[in-house]
């Protein structure tokens, strides 16, 4: 008996500790729920004033949309939602930043499997040509030398701008890369696209009141000069002596996101009526709710993350994550501005820019890579919180709809990035003053969130063990356990009930049945196990990159143009001859380019045949080496050192000479059957010799690209 009593004491202590933890959790959940409901109900009554009149619709807004490989359907949906939004079209500008030249696997509805920049040209109605000016710009990318030294490398880009038929202003920045970017032409990642604009804002706003000859004047690169000039030409200046004329807000939207009818209006209203608000986000809803069980279990999770977590954080004015898919930033603070005192730069201030724009070459630690490479949106939010004593808010009346992963492996990759970057950002946020005192502060909630993230899998496992034992041994579950479980469910479903979102109760059932084991056990374990994985993993599928030749052409154009010319626009300042070479609506590139490419391939294969004959005749080693050098040089120029893609490129050139309709480099159209025939007639000899080379090469033991 004495031994049993000695064992009871530790058990009692453990039970008391568990009871204390459970009561703490219940108290925190109750406070969060109460604050969130008060905030949502109060906010809902005041924000509706935005619908009364247009007195808050004078500010100019740039809507930035970074894109990578989105298809026609997604881009059309996004463009139409911005165009049809109630905020005046003349006060908003749509800015696409195309990160490279990729063709998504979902682009099959576009003619010839078009790349994202090509699709944009057709949707927005501007002309795109290989002869458009190309501008040098900075980049976060780097190259590694043989000795391991990392050297930052630049990038190149084209710009197009104009106005759609409906009166929506637009600009497209297309990263096109350099010749050595054989695998991913121009692609540098989403953070690079953000930095491209952040650097422009930082330099332009810093230079506003400075003379060009001052030592602290910050020179703009070629692309920044072109962008800044184009924005002024469209009456969207980044700086102006009259502050009401310059762009006031910057909005970030994803390329697969659809805005609600008055989302921008609601956000601008909140910004205009609350000058201490630095940035804000709206509610992101799932657009593809019923695509699969994977999407169904995310619906209620998205709802609670916004209606409970972000609403609670907004009470303190410290929303810890402003999502890149739906956020608005204030560019400057003019409250204390005067003739002698310019407005204070907020979003693009030196503190934020210097820390966020670090080159990838100097990001080396595990902590930094998780911050910068996986969680760019959270990192940007953290820097804003760290620098400015202003509010970061959540606007529940502004809605957007986004496409969520519908396959489990894609969800696994997405949440690995989110969970790992979130945890590291929490560590970073511990050094930031988030408001409140001791246990009644956001920092205290942050610490509890960190602990909860770490113990979620074991907690769920422990809960499962308790339920299993109670069922198998017919024991009753602890009252405290039932209290915590019941209250946890209650605080999450009370929001939908009070806001009459009855349909969300079905998605809540799916979430608790399937989502809880996935989100609270599988995903955290997988994420922490892959803490050193900084790739984006399984996301959208892209077709094989066939745009290397565009980068080579860009280098050649740069040599001809020197420092470049005016920005390419929908009313491009190119010559009439260049304008005459544009493709028609059924094609995505001019046929001259395709034919010239075929002729280059012809020369390549003829030299290859010569080399084979010399080898067969026992030519000396020097001759073989010389010809091999010529072949290698031609190969580099024609296929951009992308040997893997040489076979597909070669087949395209072959089809051109045979007068077929094919797809040229860059995902573009080429010629019709009749046009192909007329072009082939220009060089009958070339066509025959090339066809012979083709047949002989295909009959050989291996192709130039090697067997697949």
UniProtKB/TrEMBL annotation:
GO terms for biological process: chitin biosynthetic process. It comes from the Eukaryota. InterPro entries: Chitin_synth, Nucleotide-diphossugar_trans. SUPFAM superfamilies: Nucleotide-diphospho-sugar transferases. Residues 577-588, 676-687 have a biased composition (Basic and acidic residues). It is found in: Membrane. It is a multi-pass membrane protein. Keywords: Glycosyltransferase, Membrane, Transferase, Transmembrane, Transmembrane helix. Its main location: membrane. Gene3D superfamilies: Spore Coat Polysaccharide Biosynthesis Protein SpsA, Chain A. It comes from Skeletonema marinoi. GO terms for molecular function: chitin synthase activity. This is chitin synthase.
């Amino acid at each position: 008996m004495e031994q049993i009593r000695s064992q009871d004491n530790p058990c009692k202590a453990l039970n008391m500790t568990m009871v204390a933890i459970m009561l703490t959790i219940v108290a925190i959940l109750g406070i969060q729920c109460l604050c969130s409901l008060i905030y949502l109900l109060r906010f809902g009554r005041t924000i509706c004033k935005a619908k009364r009149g247009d007195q808050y619709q004078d500010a100019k807004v740039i809507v930035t949309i970074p894109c990578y490989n989105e298809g026609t359907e997604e881009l059309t949906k996004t463009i139409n939602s911005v165009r049809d939004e109630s905020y005046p079209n003349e006060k908003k500008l749509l800015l696409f930043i195309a990160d490279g030249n990729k063709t998504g696997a979902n682009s099959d509805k576009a003619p010839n499997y078009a790349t994202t920049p090509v699709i944009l040209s057709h949707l927005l109605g501007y002309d795109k040509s290989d002869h458009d000016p190309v501008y040098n710009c900075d980049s976060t990318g780097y190259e590694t030398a043989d000795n391991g030294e990392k050297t930052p490398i630049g990038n190149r880009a084209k710009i197009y701008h104009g106005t759609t038929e409906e009166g929506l202003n637009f600009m497209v920045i297309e990263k096109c890369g350099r010749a050595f970017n054989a695998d991913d032409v121009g692609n540098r990642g989403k953070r690079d696209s953000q930095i491209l604009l952040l650097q422009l804002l930082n330099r332009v706003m810093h230079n506003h009141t400075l003379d060009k000859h001052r030592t602290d004047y910050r020179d703009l690169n070629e692309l920044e000069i072109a962008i800044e000039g184009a924005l002024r030409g469209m009456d969207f200046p980044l700086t102006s002596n009259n502050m009401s004329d310059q762009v006031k807000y910057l909005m970030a939207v994803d390329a697969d996101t659809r805005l609600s009818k008055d989302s921008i209006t609601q956000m601008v209203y909140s910004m205009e009526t609350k000058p201490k608000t630095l940035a804000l986000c709206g509610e992101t809803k799932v657009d593809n709710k019923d695509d699969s069980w994977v999407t169904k279990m995310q619906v209620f999770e998205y709802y609670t993350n916004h209606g409970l977590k972000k609403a609670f954080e907004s009470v303190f004015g410290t929303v810890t994550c402003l999502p890149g898919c739906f956020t608005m930033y204030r560019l400057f603070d003019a409250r204390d501005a005067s003739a002698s005192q310019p407005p204070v730069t907020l979003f693009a201030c030196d503190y934020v820019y210097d820390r966020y724009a670090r080159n990838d070459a100097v990001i080396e630690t595990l902590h930094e890579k998780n911050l910068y490479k996986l969680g760019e949106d959270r990192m940007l939010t953290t820097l804003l919180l760290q620098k400015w004593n202003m509010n970061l808010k959540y606007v529940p009346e502004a809605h957007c709809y986004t496409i969520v992963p519908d396959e489990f492996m894609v969800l696994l990759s997405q949440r690995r990035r989110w969970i790992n970057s979130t945890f590291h950002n929490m560590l970073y946020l511990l050094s930031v003053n988030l408001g409140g005192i001791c246990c009644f502060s956001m920092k205290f909630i942050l610490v509890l969130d960190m602990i909860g993230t770490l113990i979620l899998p074991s907690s769920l496992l422990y809960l499962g063990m308790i339920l299993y034992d109670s069922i198998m041994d017919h024991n009753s579950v602890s009252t405290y356990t039932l209290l915590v479980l019941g209250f946890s469910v209650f605080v999450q479903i009370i929001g939908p009930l009070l806001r009459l979102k009855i349909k969300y109760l079905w998605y809540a059932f799916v979430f608790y049945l399937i989502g809880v084991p996935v989100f609270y056990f599988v995903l955290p374990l997988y994420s922490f196990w892959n803490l050193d994985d900084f790739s984006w993993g399984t996301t959208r599928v892209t077709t094989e990159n066939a745009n290397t030749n565009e980068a080579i052409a860009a280098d050649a154009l740069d040599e001809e143009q020197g420092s470049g010319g005016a920005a390419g626009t929908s009313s491009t300042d190119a010559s009439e001859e260049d304008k005459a070479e544009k493709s028609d609506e059924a094609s995505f590139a001019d046929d001259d380019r395709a034919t010239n490419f075929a002729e280059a391939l012809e020369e390549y294969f003829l030299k290859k045949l010569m080399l084979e004959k010399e080898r067969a005749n026992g030519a000396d080693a020097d001759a073989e080496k010389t010809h091999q050098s010529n072949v290698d040089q031609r190969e580099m120029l024609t296929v951009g050192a992308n040997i893997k893609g040489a076979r597909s490129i070669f087949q395209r050139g072959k089809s051109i000479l045979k007068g077929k309709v094919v797809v040229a480099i860059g995902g573009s159209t080429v010629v019709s059957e009749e046009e192909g025939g007329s072009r082939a007639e220009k060089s009958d000899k070339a066509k025959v010799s090339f066809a012979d080379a083709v047949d002989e090469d295909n009959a050989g033991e291996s192709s130039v690209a090697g067997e697949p």
